């Protein structure tokens, strides 16, 4: 997987945002698909059995395995939990995994780039496997108002801290909340939720969610 991340300058006091070109995205999807398929085969699961374990449609798993789609972060979690592994198993090659350490450091710009269905992610601290918290930086693009069918939910809890830009956070049972740089929110992930950047600019957020083992 390519280790270089292209960057471009944004507002003077903002941090640099990782950008992936189409070739890099295709490469990431292909490598991710190979790892997902290897995990399924390693568990001796058919696509139908994997669907039951993860809660994802057979067609969705097939497309992910064949690099035809970029799964959302929530679907990556469902795959990892369904196969009983940490998220890092899906995004790291075996040679990069370190299982003996309880401390890991990610330098600026050196996180693992993942192209998701809705967001671009930089997943942090991949050297530590079996983490209880999954930390990442997400680049959130502008989009129209979030519809109910665009909201995700899964087991666990989440914290979102706004680094740059303005976002709208929508959580089931609550009125939408506008968050700006320096603001943060913490919520129960079992409620349907989603975020979008407001205006015409991308936003960047530090996102962390708990990883509950064995939850499909």
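^ structure tokens above, recovered residues below v
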């Amino acid at each position: 997987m390519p280790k270089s991340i292209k960057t471009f300058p944004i507002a003077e006091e903002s941090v640099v945002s990782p950008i992936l070109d189409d070739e890099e995205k295709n490469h990431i999807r292909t490598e991710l698909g190979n790892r997902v398929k290897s995990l399924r085969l390693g568990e001796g699961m058919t696509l139908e059995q994997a669907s039951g374990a993860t809660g994802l449609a057979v067609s969705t798993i097939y497309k992910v395995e064949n690099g035809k789609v970029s799964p959302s972060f929530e679907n990556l979690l469902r795959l990892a939990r369904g196969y009983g592994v940490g998220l890092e198993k899906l995004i790291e090659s075996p040679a990069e995994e370190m299982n003996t350490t309880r401390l890991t450091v990610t330098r600026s710009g050196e996180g693992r780039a993942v192209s998701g269905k809705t967001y671009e992610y930089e997943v942090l601290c991949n050297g530590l496997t079996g983490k209880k918290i999954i930390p990442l930086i997400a680049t959130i693009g502008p989009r129209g108002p979030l519809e109910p069918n665009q909201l995700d939910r899964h087991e666990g809890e989440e914290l979102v801290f706004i680094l740059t830009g303005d976002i709208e956070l929508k959580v089931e049972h609550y009125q939408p909340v506008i968050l700006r740089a320096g603001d943060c929110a913490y919520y129960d992930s079992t409620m349907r939720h989603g975020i979008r950047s407001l205006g015409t600019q991308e936003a960047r957020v530090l996102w962390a969610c708990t990883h509950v083992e064995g939850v499909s």
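The CA atoms of residues 8 and 110 lie 15 Å apart.
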